[in-house]
Design brief:
This protein is an alpha+beta fold. Helix content is 48%, strand content 13%. The radius of gyration is 20 Å and the shape is globular.
Length: 310
């Protein structure tokens, strides 16, 4: 049975925790799993749900803490959960995200900084909201704005995109981004209180984590600019690079793999699945048109030697 839209109660009394944002998308699959299927099949489904939750952890670790509550289930299975976070950093153009893996969930400095980042995300979304109001006359109700401010997750442009669709300003999340949100973000980005990448790297390292540069293509840099930035990030403690990503072509993946080899960086990868409403062309684990085919990740090899959630 479903309980509070956040956990799945098994016949043996144990609970599987999942990201409720993906419930509708997986509803039929969930019902199929529950209809006479055994425990391990349900566990495999839970693994997919939990992976989704970790992927959504931008500037927050609340989702991981939720998964932690089911750690008896984790210990009784072959599932391995790695603490992970994606932190937004300042970038002159494009976007920069830095991933952190295997950090201490209870690190006080990290937790305090994440509270600050949540406050910043609220201010950022409100700034973008004001920008699209000025530029396009887009208005949302007081109730919607209040709900955004009081949300229990870090806000982002997808939240505004959903409202644009709700009020008929856009036909889809992508349409809202293309019409309004990319432009509004670029106009307000300088006022965003995002961390410098040096701060992000230090924060992850000091909490016992491994810092990795996410989807480097999104930096929108020339090869020369990218290598200058990368070398500086390595000098500040960067340990890995996300070679495999839904937005990367095969040629780009090979290029980033060669860069990782040349500079001794750990290799990571991910589909960057955010749900069908946000990224309808991305599949969990396999990317865009099945473009992610990973045989081995050196990052996982290193993390295998460390402690998973417990």
């Amino acid at each position: 049975m479903l309980d509070n839209n956040t956990k799945l109660k098994m016949e043996d009394g144990r609970y599987l925790y999942f990201n409720k944002e993906y419930l509708d998308f997986y509803k039929q699959e969930l019902l199929n799993v529950l209809d006479g299927q055994d425990y391990m099949q349900s566990l495999k489904f839970a693994k997919k749900m939990m992976m989704s939750q970790e992927i959504k952890a931008n500037n927050t670790i609340e989702g991981i803490k939720t998964i932690n509550r089911s750690d008896k289930l984790i210990k009784d299975s072959s599932i391995k959960i790695i603490n992970g976070i994606e932190i937004s950093a300042k970038a002159n153009k494009g976007k920069m995200h830095i991933l952190g893996y295997g950090f201490d969930l209870n690190n006080k400095t990290l937790n305090k900084k994440l509270v600050d980042l949540k406050d910043n995300s609220i201010n950022q979304v409100l700034s973008i909201m004001e920008q699209i109001k000025r530029d396009y006359g887009i208005r949302f109700s007081y109730e919607d704005i209040k709900e955004l401010v009081n949300a229990n997750h870090n806000l982002g442009r997808p939240d505004l995109a959903k409202l644009c669709v709700k009020y008929g300003y856009a036909t889809s999340i992508k349409d809202a981004f293309d019409k309004y949100l990319v432009d509004a973000y670029n106009k307000t980005r300088q006022s965003n209180n995002q961390l410098q990448y040096q701060e992000c790297l230090e924060l992850i390292i000091n909490s016992g984590g491994i810092p990795v540069l996410a989807h480097p293509k999104s930096l929108e840099l020339s090869e020369k600019e990218f290598l200058i930035l990368l070398k500086d990030m390595i000098s500040c403690g960067l340990q890995g690079i996300e070679v495999y990503h839904s937005s990367h072509t095969k040629k780009e993946m090979n290029y980033y793999l060669s860069i990782a080899t040349e500079y001794g960086l750990l290799v990571s990868g991910g589909s960057d699945f955010h749900g069908k409403s946000v990224k309808p062309d991305i599949e969990l684990g396999t990317g865009k048109n099945n473009n992610i085919k990973i045989k081995k990740l050196s990052l996982l090899d290193k993390l295998e030697k460390r402690t998973f959630l417990h």
